[in-house]
Amino acid sequence: MNFNAFLYRRLCKWITCELTTSFNSKIKLNSKYEVASFSDVFCHPFYWQVFTYLKKQPQLIIDCGAHCGHFTILSDICIRTKFSDVNTKYILVEPNPFLIPILEKNLIDANMDDRTNVKQGLLGNKKGKDTLWINPKNYLTASLDPLKNSNAYQVDYIDLLELVGDRTIDLIKIDIEGGEYNFVPANLSLLSQTNLVFIEIHSATEEMHSHLIESFEYVGLKVACEPIKNCDHQLLIFQRESSQS
Prior knowledge:
eight-stranded mixed beta sheet, alpha/beta
């Protein structure tokens, strides 16, 4: 990180940045977490592919590992640009309690709070709770595995299927820091109702990776593009063949 970037990340709480979209909504970067989250989502071509892969106006999008809400905001920009009317509903799940106020504020600034449902909790198991390790200096790297200089918090699991019911999920984004290896096999019913998946797959054994791919294929979701390598993980898109037309 160069000096200018380092300095801004330290001063952005007082010297804020506000961006206005073409729909007169706001994206405000008021903390180093929001700066990092915005950079990961808006400054990488992977998530912009939402514009291409959505062939019709979506009714329901789920953001797993919502962080600061930037994927949801980017998706809404793509949808509003491509389709005339916007009534897409969003469910956002974020386990880190310290990010929830930031997430909710960003949705209000983007004029999306009336179409969003924010849930704080873990994904993977259907019930119970687990220990989430949170580094107070970097809220974006919370993990179920103990992290150096992190604090332990007990967080409940969320059963997404209870929230979704029998609705079709047009798009689900999964970025849950390695939790995808538990979440995907445990949520085959949910994924069988899903047409499009954007997922970050983190490092694991070849057997775990293969089992994850097979789980998607079992519910009719096929790899739609070549994987994109980004740091220590892969970015992949899975799509239901019947939804491509």
